[in-house]
């Protein structure tokens, strides 16, 4: 089994490396079209991912949209992430050409004000639009960004991703493995990018997300409370003309009612509400294939009896 896993990892790495090289050589728009064609083929054959995507969209919008509309959103999601993937591997090229020609920003004063205070901040983003490109752009804008992300199970593939992030200039902190680096980054006043829009194997609480309870990580809120720093939501979505729009929102300040457990749930709900707001504006740019509601409160309670 170890040999099979090593072979699979090697194949995945060499395929990914090939496409990274190809998409960095060819014109951007040509690369996006080719990637979208390949993604559509993958979507057709990947029954599990297609089923999950349609199921989750139906769970969120079954009372608002028709089956046809939901399937259209699912296909547009595939096209979107093909384009975002091409742009993510082209980050070194964007850095050389100047990223402002590809990105415009709105409400950056929220981030600027928090950074000037020098106490650090949680930059809350999501698996929406192009979070990799936003991280590169912020670093290009001279923000010394640190980003917490999950390591890939394929070590060589993970190294390929890290190399791209290193070229962008921001520091990656492996989730769950480098807690000391997270604390150090905030103590030194760095912006720390975190995502909490997925159900992962970390401490979470149950809050509403598109009308359903979703287990949501609490890490960003706990850190904001511990260091008395703001949470600044920021997202980069793709526009029809293939430029990106970075949008910041007003800081989320942690609650202090004297009831820590109640405050924690209330603050995580605020973050979830921001996620729902931005996702509703750009439905096809969020990762609907992710099993966001794979656990439910009653099932979780049963396991812990």
Summary?
By secondary structure, this protein is of the alpha/beta class. The chain has helices at residues 2-25, 28-45, 47-61, 67-89, 91-97, 109-117, 131-140, 155-168, 179-187, 219-227, 260-281, 297-303; strands at residues 103-106, 121-125, 146-149, 171-174, 191-195, 204-209, 212-217, 231-238, 244-248.
What does the secondary structure layout of this molecule look like, with pairings?
Layout: H1 2-25, H2 28-45, H3 47-61, H4 67-89, H5 91-97, E1 103-106, H6 109-117, E2 121-125, H7 131-140, E3 146-149, H8 155-168, E4 171-174, H9 179-187, E5 191-195, E6 204-209, E7 212-217, H10 219-227, E8 231-238, E9 244-248, H11 260-281, H12 297-303
Parallel strand pairs: 1-9, 2-5, 2-8, 3-4, 3-5
Antiparallel strand pairs: 6-7, 8-9
Helix pairs in contact: 1-8, 2-4, 3-4
Neighbour order of strands in the largest sheet: 1-9-8-2-5-3-4
- Distinct helical segment count: 12
Whole-Å distance between the termini? 35 Å
> How many beta-strand segments?
9
How does the helix and strand content classify structurally? alpha/beta
Overall morphology: globular
The helix/strand order is HHHHHEHEHEHEHEEEHEEHH
> Which residues sit in consecutive blocks of at least 5 with pLDDT less than 50?
none
Q: What is the share of helical residues?
A: 40-55%
Strand content: 15-25%
Largest sheet: 7 strands, mixed
Number of domains: 1
For the CA atoms, what is the radius of gyration? 19 Å
Give the mean pLDDT: 93
């Amino acid at each position: 089994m170890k040999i099979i896993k090593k072979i699979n990892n090697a194949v995945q790495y060499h395929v990914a490396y090939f496409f990274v090289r190809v998409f960095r050589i060819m014109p951007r728009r040509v690369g996006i079209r080719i990637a979208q064609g390949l993604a559509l083929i993958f979507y057709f054959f990947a029954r599990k991912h297609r089923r999950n995507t349609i199921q989750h969209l139906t769970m969120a919008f079954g009372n608002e949209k028709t089956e046809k509309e939901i399937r259209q959103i699912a296909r547009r999601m595939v096209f979107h992430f093909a384009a975002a993937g091409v742009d993510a591997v082209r980050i070194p090229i964007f850095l050389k050409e100047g990223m402002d020609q590809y990105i415009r920003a709105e409400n950056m004063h929220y981030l600027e004000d928090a950074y000037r205070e020098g106490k650090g901040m949680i930059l809350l983003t999501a698996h929406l639009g192009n979070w990799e490109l936003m991280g590169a752009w912020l670093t290009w804008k001279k923000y010394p960004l640190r980003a917490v992300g999950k390591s890939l199970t394929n070590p060589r593939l993970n190294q390929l991703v890290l190399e791209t992030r290193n070229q962008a200039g921001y520091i990656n902190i492996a989730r769950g493995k480098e807690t000391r680096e997270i604390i150090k980054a905030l103590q030194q006043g760095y912006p720390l990018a975190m995502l909490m829009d997925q159900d992962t194997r970390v401490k979470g609480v149950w809050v509403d997300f598109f009308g359903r309870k979703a287990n949501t990580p609490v890490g960003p809120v706990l850190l904001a409370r511990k260091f008395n720093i703001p949470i600044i939501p920021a997202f980069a979505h793709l526009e029809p003309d293939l430029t990106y729009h970075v949008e910041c929102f007003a800081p989320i300040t942690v609650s202090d009612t004297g009831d820590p457990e109640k405050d924690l749930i209330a603050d995580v709900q605020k973050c979830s509400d921001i996620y729902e707001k931005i996702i509703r504006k750009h439905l096809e740019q969020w990762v609907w294939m992710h099993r966001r509601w794979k656990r439910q409160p009653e099932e979780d309670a049963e396991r812990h009896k």
